[in-house]
Amino acid sequence: MTKLWTGRFAKETDHSLDVLNASLPFDRRLYRQDITGSIAHAKMLARQSIISEADGEAIVKGLQSILADIEAGTLVMEGAEDIHSFVEQELTNRIGDAGKRLHTARSRNDQVALDMRMYVKEEITKIHALLLDLIKVLCAKAREHLTTVMPGYTHLQRAQPVTLAHVYMAYGNMLRRDCVRLNNTFALMDEMPLGSGALASTTYPIDRDYVCEQLGFAKITDNSMDGVSDRDYCMELAADCSILMMHLSRICEEIILWCTWEFRFCELDDAFSTGSSIMPQKKNPDVCELIRGKSGRVYGDLMTLLSMQKGLSLAYNKDMQEDKEALFDVIDTVTHSLQVLIPMLDTMKIHEENMKQAALGGYINATDCADYLTKKGVPFRDAYRCVGELVAWCIERSCALNDVSLEDLQQFHPLFGSDVYEAIDLQTCVRERKAPGGPAPDCVKVQIEALERFVQKE
Ligand code: ARG
User: Fold this and answer.
1) Closest to 194 (Cα-Cα) out of 310, 39, 64
2) Which residue's CA is minimally distant from atom 3 of ligand 1?
3) Fewer CB atoms inside 10 Å of the end CB: C or N, the chain?
């Protein structure tokens, strides 16, 4: 393997070191950022007369041809320590001495810092776009299910009536915050580190702002030692993605429950389900389980990144090469999870009748029944107790509150009137929960519109 750092060494490095040291097997995914960054650097060097105009042009052309060949699949990225060495080596093979001038006023330390930031900015944008697609699907489905009543749960016990639209908007709001977190991470990391050199900048008259402008960063980094060793944004993205995966895992857990014969609230499309090798009847929600499982691996990546950096004195240390596999894994995992979850949710069939049947059992209108008495003047705590006794009585008889005759109801409280049946009807219970943020169809419509506006302005 050819090295960039020959000269001081009299001997070849041991093979075991080469294997440990190499990052090309994974950092080759940065080839486009590396080449684009190098083109900007070369143009700046020529503009500042640090290299000649002719060398600058030769470098830019050479780099462009390398990029084209990699993208065409005709240039295999191997035989170097990392992507930076590979590109420089290939450039020198192609254009000779001018290629050896590219690394003037630059170190691999600021080079890799630049490549990673460029890559992460692009990936944040892609994940953000996928998140918006997911929110759009949730909004569209919510519009279809504004009056699809289902039980809302606390402690996984049926609690109060909600609608599927309301549930979807709960997740929609989580994902909206995930988008905002990604925006914040992007804004904070949008700084251009090239020019930091190895750690102490450079004596050449470089123009960092020109490089910054060419590469579309908001500003240049303020301090060269921080510039080469800041990996906060890797951890921030991993933290953002950990929270996002936690949200996806919750949606998935919900769907896993809904797919059981016990719930039967929905059925996944065949294209997003798996079968069993032995049990012919099985249709399994593997996609959801995988996403739920993969959330843990993203949390692990976040821990890898935090642990990698915590003991490092300034400035660059080779430990930092470990940022890549962890962060790439975060990005790949989140991207694949979103890519499959979006069409899976879009094609999932909802069994509205089963949701309604579940809502009819479990006394989820008991609060409404107590509220009925309270609105007639009974103190809430007394009404609560009275309905508690009524529920216990119903459980003995295996009947719903709605099935109890008015006479029997009046044994529990004389203020029960015939209008109680309307008051505890599930549709009424949902329609009347109309405080802002509630499940009433009109309130959920407001929530959907707010999220649709958010998606539009993002
Ligand atoms: N492959 C290295 C990394 O990813 C590039 C920087 C190497 N710098 C150095 N001084 N060895 O961190």
Assistant:
1) 39
2) 321
3) C
What 3-state class would DSSP assign to 85?
Answer: helix
Residue owning tokens 């009925």: 372
Average pLDDT over residues 388-392: 97
- If you count DSSP H runs as helices and E runs as strands, how many of each does the chain have, helices first? 20, 6
Written as six digits, the tokens of 90 are 């290939």
Please determine, looking at this structure, whether the domain spanning 108-357 carries the CATH number 1.20.200.10.
yes
- The token pair that represents 273 in the structure block: 């389900």
Q: Which residue, among 366, 348, 364, has the nearest Cα to 356 in the 3D structure?
A: 364
Torsion of CA 115, 118, 119, 123, to 10 degrees: 170
In what helix (H) or strand (E) does residue 344 lie, and over which residues does it extend? helix 323-347
**pLDDT tens by residue, 167-185:** 999 999 999 999 999 999 9
pTM summary value:
0.95
DSSP 8-state symbol, 136: H
For the 15-100 domain, the top CATH level (class) is: mainly alpha
Which is nearest to 199 in space by CA: 130, 116, 112?
A: 112
Between the alpha carbon of residue 77 and those of residues 63, 90, 183, 446, the distances in Å are: 14, 10, 33, 53
> Catalytic residue numbers?
155, 276
Residue 49 CA to ligand 1 center (angstroms) comes to: 27
- What ipTM did this prediction achieve? 0.96
Q: Which helix (H) or strand (E) holds 244?
A: helix 232-259
Token couple for 210 = 């020109």
Around ligand 1, the residues with Cβ closer than 6 Å are: 23, 27, 82, 108-109, 112, 316, 318, 320-321
Pinpoint the residues of the chain covered by CATH 1.10.40.30. Answer: 360-457
* CB-CB contact of 252 with 223 (8 Å): no
CA 81 – ligand 1 centroid, Å: 9
CATH of region 360-457? 1.10.40.30
